[in-house]
Write a structure and sequence with these properties.
The complex is a heterodimer of chains A (197) and B (424). Helices cover 43% and strands 13% of the residues of chain A. Chain A is built from five helices and four strands; from the N terminus they run βαβαααβαβ. With 424 residues, chain B is mainly alpha-helical. In chain B, helix 2 packs across helix 13, helix 4 packs antiparallel against helix 6 and helix 13 packs antiparallel against helix 14. Chain B has one domain. The chains are: A alpha+beta (197), B mainly alpha (424).
């Protein structure tokens, strides 16, 4: 199934930030924004829920610490005790560096894997990019067009985007849905126009 | 956003608070001192500990400010007067330190005894004789006076620019910022060297046989995180009293991140110092930790608990740092300040007391030394707590007084707007 997106192209991060706020104020949910660099405050302007990735990071990190400590304790103190430098078999201070490394490794790899799975990325498939210019110098606001959106909606959003500083606005079809798992504070529903309520 | 003149006057609660700190502190100090008149080491090293702690706290506030000036850091502009007021303790604390060092040198520093350098004396110490070119009273005091003079001079210049920027126009503000950048750059370099060397002089030389190459960094991080915690407490107090309303959750969030991050950095340095010494197990290095673990285990491990484990778990969550009641942040800041005071205690006092039995004039035989062992270990008592409160009262009062001398918000600072619209 094809997914239709209304794409607004912006030239400046500040203009984009104001534009997102403006479009959302009119009652339209901005589906996704692409920028060449991180823009501070954008997540708030888009109404995104705080990511839970850091919680996952903590959990994976804790698993890493425990893995490292238990493997070291088992191998060095229980299974095959070897005297090293006259230290006790279970030498907690010596386990620090490896414990730290495995914490970081588990947290990093775990977060990456979870991030890929949640966003539907895969190494086996080329990423579908909305507009290649986002990797260089343009800022893009994407609005997901659903079947229930009427022509009037498209005209209205196009007008809003142009008014808020978009250089060009066009419609693009995508094979896959963009960022299907972005959590929104308002439940992830693409809201309809304000006057429908 | 208004740029109205915002001037701070010391609130009655703050006055009462500092007065209580000073009065209670002085009473406890007096009681503690009366019971320890026969123990000049405790008297003088207690004074050294508490004055040094707040002197370094003021000094690192100047570094915090300078590093941001040099690095074009704008986010703190709105509350930059707070570290500015803190750094003005340096001249006061510096003079006090010189007095303490001048009068208490022999009671704190084992190396200052002449007979250690006499080859014919039974007290002759070949290792210290080898370090004598650096570690002698003359050079020691010359360095101390030099540090304090240079610090005071640079801090005075920074402060002068800050005062003048309020009097002029926006253009003056930009020009003075530019001029402050040179001063700040010099201060950062000076601090990089002198923070290490001064901590060798004043703290590490208490146990002159022992050395650690990252002792300076360890001290620096310890006091830097204290400084962040202290600023958080001051800013909570000021915002609750309707000053500095331009400070947002973003500023507190970043200060919280700093407090968390530097606590971890402290743990990193503590561990780096401890683990390498423990692992290599070279007697001359191990004696420092061995002595503390044997005689001061509670203080030693409490430091790790209060300065790393507690802040790590208290502050790891984002919501805690953005919680508008600031409850957890205040608790963490108080724990961190006390924890790092304890860390300074742990660095200074055990060494000073260990010296007592061995120090000049006290010619105990090895056996007698051993018998003395238990008596050497001195716990934290009324005297130390009293001095902590006294110096805290002095520091807080001077800071609030200096804060009231100027506008709260540097209206002509070029980065003021950046600070107001700041977003993490």
């Amino acid at each position: 199934m094809k997914h239709k997106y209304l794409v607004g192209v912006y030239n400046d991060d500040d203009i984009l930030l104001d534009a997102v706020t403006k479009v959302r104020k009119e009652g339209y949910q901005v589906h996704e924004v692409f920028t060449p660099f991180p823009v501070h405050g954008l997540d708030e302007a888009m109404g995104l829920q705080d990511t839970r990735l850091h919680t996952i990071g903590f959990v994976f990190g804790a698993i890493g610490t425990l893995t490292a400590l238990s493997v070291m304790a088992y191998t060095m103190a229980i299974d095959w005790p070897v005297i090293v430098g006259g230290k006790p078999f279970f030498s907690f201070p010596a386990y620090g560096p490896i414990g730290f490394e495995l914490t970081v490794l588990f947290a990093a790899v775990g977060m990456t894997v979870v991030y890929y799975i949640r966003n539907g990325f895969s190494v086996l498939r080329d990423a579908e990019v909305l507009d290649l210019r986002i990797t260089d110098h343009k800022f893009i606001m994407a609005f997901c067009l659903k079947r229930y959106h009427k022509d009037a909606d498209i005209t209205q959003i196009t007008r809003l985007m142009k008014e808020s500083g978009a250089e060009e606005v066009y419609v693009k079809d995508m094979e896959n849905e963009l960022s299907p798992n972005l959590f929104r504070k308002d439940g992830g529903v693409i809201t309809e126009h304000a006057h429908h309520h | 956003m208004s740029t109205a003149i915002e001037k701070y006057t010391i609130t009655p609660e703050a006055k009462r608070f500092t007065l209580i700190l000073l009065v209670v502190g002085l009473i406890l100090t007096a009681i503690g001192a009366v019971f320890n008149l026969d123990n000049p080491t405790r008297i003088w090293s207690g004074l050294l500990l508490n004055n040094l702690f707040f002197l370094m706290l003021g000094l690192v506030a100047a570094l915090f400010l300078s590093a941001h000036i040099v690095g074009y850091g704008g986010w703190l502009t709105i509350f930059r007067r707070v570290p500015e007021a803190m750094m003005l303790y340096v001249p006061v604390g510096g003079v006090l330190l010189l007095i303490i060092l001048g009068l208490g040198l022999h009671h704190i520093y084992h190396w200052s005894h002449e007979e250690l350098y006499d080859p014919n004396s039974p007290m002759y110490d070949a290792i210290l004789d080898g370090k004598r070119a650096f570690l002698n009273a003359g050079f020691f005091f010359a360095r101390a006076i030099g540090y304090i003079a240079i610090w005071t001079g640079l801090i005075w210049l920074l402060r002068r620019n800050s005062i003048q920027s309020d009097l002029g126009t926006r253009a003056d503000g930009a020009r003075l910022y530019q001029s402050s950048k040179y001063i700040a750059a010099i201060f950062v370099v000076v601090y990089a060297v002198t923070s290490s060397t001064s901590s060798w002089d004043w703290i590490m030389s208490i146990q002159p046989h022992w050395y650690s190459t990252l002792f300076g960094w360890y001290n620096f991080i310890s006091i830097l995180v204290t400084c962040i915690a202290f600023m958080i407490l001051v800013l909570v107090y000021l915002t609750k009293n309707n000053y500095l309303q331009g400070i947002t959750n973003e500023h507190f969030h970043d200060l919280g991140k700093f407090m968390f991050g530097f606590s971890v950095a402290w743990a990193y340095l503590f561990y780096s110092q401890f683990m390498l010494i423990w692992y290599a197990n070279i007697p001359e290095e191990t004696l420092y930790f061995k002595y503390r673990i044997d005689n001061y285990p509670v203080v030693m491990w409490l430091c790790v608990l209060l300065n790393f484990v507690t802040p790590f778990f208290l502050l790891i969550s984002r919501d805690v740092k953005r919680d508008r009641s600031r409850r957890v942040m205040i608790i963490a800041a108080l724990i961190i300040i006390f924890g790092h005071w304890l860390d300074f205690y742990q660095m200074i006092m055990p060494g000073a007391f260990a010296n007592m039995a061995h120090a000049g004039g006290d010619h105990h035989a090895e056996a007698a030394d051993h018998a003395h062992h238990a008596a050497e270990v001195v716990r934290i008592g009324l005297y130390e707590i009293g001095l902590l409160l006294t110096f805290a009262g002095l520091f807080v009062y001077l800071m609030l007084y200096n804060l009231s001398k100027q506008r709260m918000v540097p209206v002509n600072h070029p980065f003021l707007k950046e600070s107001r619209v700041y977003h993490t």
